[in-house]
Design brief:
The protein has helices at 23-31, 34-52, 57-83, 92-107, 112-115, 119-165, 173-187, 200-205, 228-233, 236-241; strands spanning 11-12, 15-16. By secondary structure, it is mainly α. It has one domain (14-241). Strands 1-2 form a two-stranded antiparallel sheet. A hairpin with a 2-residue loop joins strand 1 and strand 2 (15-16). The longest helix has 47 residues, at 119-165. The radius of gyration is 19 Å and the shape is globular.
Length: 258
């Protein structure tokens, strides 16, 4: 691990704190993070398989393009209806899954380890979304092209997701706007702005909003509805966390505090 990232001020408990890192430190953490390395290795393997079973330039481009088109819609559906759904924490056998894949991220939005999805969850999901599309277009080679494209997009998504939680103001206006919309999702109202790099699908389904004045602040923006009352009724996430769910960032004072 880089000496830069051994700095105790950059680490809080189980994860690097993006709120205390700069862009250079993010690049080091990102490019040396095991999950990202695994995605890159699998993408290289997929494109190698594509080269050995090349279906032609047309099917290859079509398979990759189809994944690029489908990905924002798939992410939106997963994010809105599964990650923000309440059914997973209400079953003991899926409570830990929900905790890991999204609850922890909303409880601690700037912590890197819970920002990246677990490969045990993400890689099968990427495969399920992309491989059938590629196979229909170009059989084995098309599947390889589609899966490799999905992994590449995921790496891009994850990097921009880090930027959105990083203590850094992007120079490019479009990245600034992207970051502002995602910050609203985490700190104002979680029932909107589900996109990461694109909010086109949010616009289509009416979940897009541009500033905090557009809607009142949600009381469940940090706990996704899993408040103390829900935790008492469905205790499995709280048991794994070891503490009751929070409705504000760690260390933030209560609103009625002096």
């Amino acid at each position: 691990m880089s000496g830069t990232l051994r700095n105790a001020n950059l680490r809080t408990g189980r994860s690097f704190d993006l709120g205390k890192m700069n862009l250079r430190q993010l690049w080091i953490a990102y490019l040396t993070y095991p999950t990202i390395i695994l995605y890159i290795v699998l993408a290289i393997g997929s494109f190698t398989l594509l080269a050995r079973h090349f279906p032609g330039i047309g099917p290859t481009l079509l398979a990759g393009g189809a994944v690029v088109a489908v990905y924002p819609m798939a992410w939106y559906a997963i994010h809105r209806f599964i990650l923000h759904g309440r059914f997973l924490y209400r079953m003991k056998w899926t409570a830990g899954l929900w905790k890991r894949i999204h609850f922890d991220h909303h409880q601690d939005p700037h912590l890197l380890d819970v920002l990246f999805g677990s490969p045990l969850n993400t890689i099968p999901t990427i495969a399920i979304i992309t491989i059938p599309i590629g196979y229909l277009i170009g059989h084995l080679g098309g599947s390889a092209a589609a899966f490799g494209t999905g992994l590449t997009i995921t790496c891009i998504y994850e990097f921009f997701h880090c930027i959105q939680h990083l203590n850094y103001k992007p120079r490019m206006r479009w990245i600034q706007k992207m970051k502002q919309r995602h910050v609203l999702h985490h700190f104002h109202d979680e029932d909107g702005n589900y996109g990461i790099t694109s909010f086109v699908v949010d616009r289509i389904f009416g979940s897009y909003y541009v500033d905090a004045r557009a809607r009142p602040r949600s009381p469940s923006v940090f706990n996704l509805g899993y408040d103390v009352a829900e935790a008492n009724r469905y205790p499995w996430v709280m048991e794994q966390t070891g503490t009751p769910p929070r409705d504000r960032p760690a260390g933030a004072p209560h609103r009625d505090a002096a």
